[in-house]
Model the fold of this input.
Amino acid sequence: MRVEVPEIAVVGLMGVSGSGKSTFAKRFFKPTEVLSSDYFRALISDDENNQAVSAQAFDTLYYVANKRLELGLLTVIDATNVQKEARAGVLRLAKDQNCHAVAIVLDMPEKLCRERNEARTDRNFSGHVIARQSEQLRRSLRFLQKDGFRYVYVLKSEAEIAEVEIVRVPLWNNKKQETGPFDIIGDIHGCYDELCELLIKLGYAVDKENCIATPPEGRKAVFLGDLCDRGPNNVEVLRLVMGMVQSGAAFCAAGNHDAKLLKKLRGAYVKLTHGLATTVEQLYAQSDAFIAEVKDFLDSLISNYVFDGGKLVAAHAGLKEKLQGRGSARVRDFCLYGDTTGETDAYGLPVRLPWANEYRGKAMVIYGHTPTPRVEMINNTYCIDTGCVFGGQLSAFRYPEKEIVQVEAAREYYAPAKPFLDKPVAYDDMLNIDDVIGQRYLSTRLRRNIKINAENAAAALEVMSRFAADPHWLIYLPPTMSPCETSKLADYLEYPTEAFDYYKTRGVGKVVCEQKHMGSRAVIVLCRDAETAARRFKAEDGGFGIIYTRTGRRFFEDRDTETAILTRLQTVLTSSDFWNDFETDWVCLDTELMPWSAKAQKLLEEQYAPVGRAGRSALAAAIDAIGQSNIAQPELLAQYRARAEALNLYTDAYRRYCWDVKCLDDYRIAPFHILATEGKTWCSENHIWHMESIAQYMTGRDPIFMATSHLLVDLLDENSVANGVKWWEELTAAGGEGMVVKPYDFIATQGAELLQPAVKCRGREYLRIIYGPEYLLADHLPRLKKRSLSKKRNLALSEFALGMEALERFAQGEPLYRVHECVFGVLAMESEPVDPRL
Done:
């Protein structure tokens, strides 16, 4: 007898005591593959016959079995397994590990089993035990497949056992020996013209009239399913794909539409929705022979393929790592429908979880199913369903080249239930709390995998609901900023060399150094007039702009002050012809607003000033006491005088950034980014362009609006770098806070890695405000140099990506909730625990 065992499976040996299960296992399986209940009883209690510890023994056995199967290793359970309850453990194991369960039954004569037990000196089961087990086995045989065993083999004699051949067979989806190259094609949905055009573009010879396609030598096509429905030429698509698969020129995975069509052809009742009616009508106009051929073809489709030694996985709706290379109903459902929750959204479509956001597998996964405006690459997964039937594109992924080849749809053949293309769509402005609460994953153009933890979302919801401005205005929140690496110089915590090295070592040739103003970050959104504000920002109070903080709160409690500043900026932009030159009627600016005390007055009154007053008083008293002591203590006196001097420098440091504001002209605003205007974000322009444009259109026309001193540094020129260091030293020596170092390009990358949009390098004296008056004394600085920047930098990158994504979505006219989820994400990440001194 030939016994076929899948390469990944749970094999349950079944038979009464004395039937020869352990001998069979030793003969046909590796010792490490066999998990014997007797062995685990002995492991637990030093006695393999101790039935009292069976529960603990099987707990341990199944724990080890799970670990083996997680690694994709065949596992054999050597136990009697004659009772349904005992076999349930084997079946549960197979279900949990998404693999097949195989039953190999040794149905030996009862007399033989009794004789073998009587001959054993280590065990002496009574005859009624053997009889009971034999009866339980006989009653179980006809129900094994119904219970869940995929394969059942029954051996009834020693002669049959002697002639058994155990054959390890690969799963149907195991095509690891197929190494490509492949052309993987997304959801076709009956778009035959576009399919032919795409194949020709890929280099295939196409006989369109006869539905024949021949690949270039050495290449094969892989179709991701959903061949039919919604499109105009379903029969032609079927003929071409079926022919390619039958000739060995292609593989085809099953899609959910293919599975539904198969049900219909088998005679089951299905609703003729989502374009199925068109396919059925076209198909039933063909011959019975062709319909039968289609039915057999669809029935032969499997849910996924594993290619190239496990490096490539192709499935209609994708596949998580733990399901790859497995075979089960759960695997098939995932491949057909994705990671669904069982719920439907407002469009009546299944709610799908973003499994790709957490994907960490080594295999590249190519899939379709969910139409997207462009091919989405997330964590080594590629969604290539670009909605051809909905008027998008038909896409192919070339492996191993990692190239995308696309053709445009001739037209929209079927209106999507849920709009997905990048085009203006009328959306409801209502914000739903379900859009922001709980753990979420946000995908942006700059960073694809951004996780928002539930606890951070809750903190952001508290701030947003209690303190934030009208969400219609909140189209952007600025990111946090990481400092440069800790300086290697003994007397500095931060120094320009490390800031320059961060970019130079990552391939950036030029940076822009900008003076770091000691003010408060302020975002200004300004409209040309109140009508624009009402139309674009749904402003219903007659306002035409807003100034808000980096946490989304209005900067000024006094609305008159805000309106007065916005009016003056409006006048400046109008006089400089900004609105016409930028072809816009609104603008979003990133700025610094001074004095620092304008927003930080409470911080000054409750933290900095009390430290200064208390410190001066206490240290003066201590110095006086030491001086009047009968015992001379010069070292202690010098130490306290140094502390007093440090405290004076500390108070001098924060006083530089505070001044009285008696009128509007006492404010200073330094714009440094033109973030967005109608239909465009300006991240494509370099930082020098931003500085020059701000100088041209905004500064020098009103005393409130000031320019930011800046310097271009060529990192490949030692003299230029030395000038950059000198510029920082002079700036900080004159009492400046420091500088911000930015890559020349607004968005800088190293390969696929997004680089920091900016790093700050703060001066020695300013850092007293951050790290305390005495941070340069004694052993404090060496201790403070042991700081970690990794979490801060990761937050900065994620917040930057979210902020730019929010602007991009707003500029392109996307709905409020789409903009708000990114803004909300930035605010949520601000509650992540990180050293505030960074």
Observations:
- The chain has a mean pLDDT of 91.
- The chain is about 40% helix and 20% strand.
- The longest strand covers residues 668-677.
